[in-house]
TrEMBL record:
<dbReference type="GO" id="GO:0019752">
    <property type="term" value="P:carboxylic acid metabolic process"/>
</dbReference>
<keyword id="KW-0663">Pyridoxal phosphate</keyword>
<dbReference type="InterPro" id="IPR050477">
    <property type="entry name" value="GrpII_AminoAcid_Decarb"/>
</dbReference>
<protein>
    <submittedName>
        <fullName>Aminotransferase class V-fold PLP-dependent enzyme</fullName>
    </submittedName>
</protein>
<keyword id="KW-0812">Transmembrane</keyword>
<dbReference type="GO" id="GO:0008483">
    <property type="term" value="F:transaminase activity"/>
</dbReference>
<dbReference type="Pfam" id="PF00282">
    <property type="entry name" value="Pyridoxal_deC"/>
</dbReference>
<keyword id="KW-1133">Transmembrane helix</keyword>
<dbReference type="InterPro" id="IPR002129">
    <property type="entry name" value="PyrdxlP-dep_de-COase"/>
</dbReference>
<keyword id="KW-0456">Lyase</keyword>
<dbReference type="GO" id="GO:0004058">
    <property type="term" value="F:aromatic-L-amino-acid decarboxylase activity"/>
</dbReference>
<dbReference type="InterPro" id="IPR015421">
    <property type="entry name" value="PyrdxlP-dep_Trfase_major"/>
</dbReference>
<comment type="pathway">
    <text>Sphingolipid metabolism.</text>
</comment>
<keyword id="KW-0032">Aminotransferase</keyword>
<keyword id="KW-0256">Endoplasmic reticulum</keyword>
<keyword id="KW-0472">Membrane</keyword>
<dbReference type="GO" id="GO:0030170">
    <property type="term" value="F:pyridoxal phosphate binding"/>
</dbReference>
Length: 419
């Protein structure tokens, strides 16, 4: 590659050889996040299972050039999408034909907010609908509301990290359309009182979305490995939609999530049909046009390869990692999990010390902790089981590096970014 005067890359006059390209990529990647050793806590949810990973590589390779824009041309992909909706639907207790496969959690949330807007306008006559979310709701809701020109009403959460339904009730207006609860939320790993929030929606004939991007493929098994799980899925009366990411605790590579609805009529509100151009009928179930096939096939392969027993085994490992990390944190003076989390997702605070400095001291020891306003963020996958002891040792040393006092309350860590 050659560079122009401003340092940006220009198209090479002659194409580079595969060896040259791979060499450059390998060199450039040496600066990327190294998650394989279990020292990163978001971005990659790895099962730590070589056979599973090898299978996903083979499946992705088979579908590298296929385009899910028109699933009717690819009956194999069409069936996989139907299977994903049916398998996901069964796990969270909705029908087999009430879901769409999307490219990720943000995308699923966008679809659910879009559906709510269309439902509010056309079924309820609310021209300018509002979406009511806890302040812990993922930024995807803020993004969807901004893009779709909808007002987001944010309700502060309590000290336990959960939204109080009475506060949600007080926030309702005659423009409210969609109430949101997370199972769990990203910052604290706490599960909102879904039953109470959904009951509020149900009583008033409103929609209720459960953001289970993290929990959709975890909580059904989390409960079965003996962890306490409050009601959160479609068995709760009043829950009308859900986002559930397969590329998180469904253990496939990036680009696969489900948006699920209580019934097909709601799902159809996000469908798009168009024939007012010379190119024939164009239809899509999500805003995407051309869609890469590997994430669909990978997600299907992941669920089929793990099966119920594989998910139970993965979840057992996550539960063990969760116990080991909690034990390590509890054994370390100067840190605590706050608020208490319900899941393997949590915030670790450093009362009286600057958590950004403790996080930096952990980074200096090779960890890559995500930093948020109130503390360090942990999200555990099966492959973290092997590093809990080391984490505890390094955490104690990192805390000892940072003196009490001088807490920088302004500093904010990054979670997403712009290239
Ligand atoms: C609770 C929750 N909702 C939504 C999302 C957004 O998912 P994605 O990054 O796949 O768009 C995340 C991502 O971590 C999440 O944790």
């Amino acid at each position: 590659m050659s560079s122009s005067d401003d340092g940006s890359t220009t198209l090479p006059a002659e194409g580079l050889s595969p060896e040259e390209i791979l060499g450059r990529i390998d060199e450039a990647r040496s600066g990327d996040l190294d998650w394989r050793g279990g020292r990163a806590f978001s971005l990659v949810y790895h099962p730590g299972d070589e056979a599973h990973e090898a299978l996903l590589h083979q499946v992705a390779d088979r579908y590298l050039h296929e385009n899910a824009l028109n699933p009717l041309r690819y009956p194999s992909l069409l069936q996989m999408e139907l299977d994903l909706g049916a398998m996901g639907g069964a796990l969270v207790h909705t029908g087999p034909d009430c879901a769409a496969v999307t490219a990720g959690g943000t995308y699923s949330i966008f679809c659910a907010v879009l559906t709510a807007r269309e439902w509010a306008r056309h079924a309820r006559g609310i021209a300018e609908p509002q979406v009511v979310t806890p302040t812990t709701a993922h930024p995807a809701f803020a993004k969807a509301c901004e893009y779709l020109d909808i007002e987001q009403v944010r309700v502060p959460v309590e000290g336990d990290g959960r939204v109080d339904p009475t506060r949600v009730e007080r926030a309702l207006t005659n423009r409210s359309a969609l109430l949101v609860a997370s199972a769990p939320n990203y910052p604290y790993g706490t599960i909102d009182p879904v039953a109470e929030v959904a009951a509020l929606a149900d009583d008033r004939g409103l929609l209720c979305h459960v953001d289970a991007c993290l929990g959709g493929f975890l909580l059904p098994f989390w409960e079965r490995v003996g962890e306490p799980v409050p009601p959160w899925d479609f068995r709760v009366e009043g829950v009308t939609s859900m986002s559930a990411d397969i590329h998180k605790y469904g253990y496939t590579f990036k680009g696969a999530s489900l948006v699920l609805y209580r019934d097909r009529d709601l799902l159809k509100r996000q469908y798009f049909w168009y024939d007012d151009w010379p190119g024939g009928l164009y239809a899509s179930s999500t805003p995407a046009g051309t869609r890469p096939a590997p994430p669909i096939a990978g997600a299907w392969a992941s669920l089929m390869h793990l099966g119920d027993s594989g998910f139970m085994a993965m979840t057992q490992q996550v539960a063990e990692a969760n116990r080991a990390f909690r034990a390590a944190i509890e054994a370390t003076d100067g840190v605590e999990i706050a608020p208490a989390s319900d899941t393997p997702v949590m915030q670790v605070t450093t009362p009286g010390r600057d958590h950004n400095a403790v996080g930096a001291a952990m980074d200096a020891r090779g960890w890559n902790l995500d930093l948020q306003q109130g503390g360090m963020h942990l999200m555990l996958s099966p492959y973290h089981l092997g590093v809990a002891d080391r984490f505890g040792e390094d955490l104690a040393a990192a805390v000892a590096d940072v003196p009490l006092g001088d807490v920088d309350t302004e500093a904010v860590g990054t979670y997403g970014g712009i290239a």
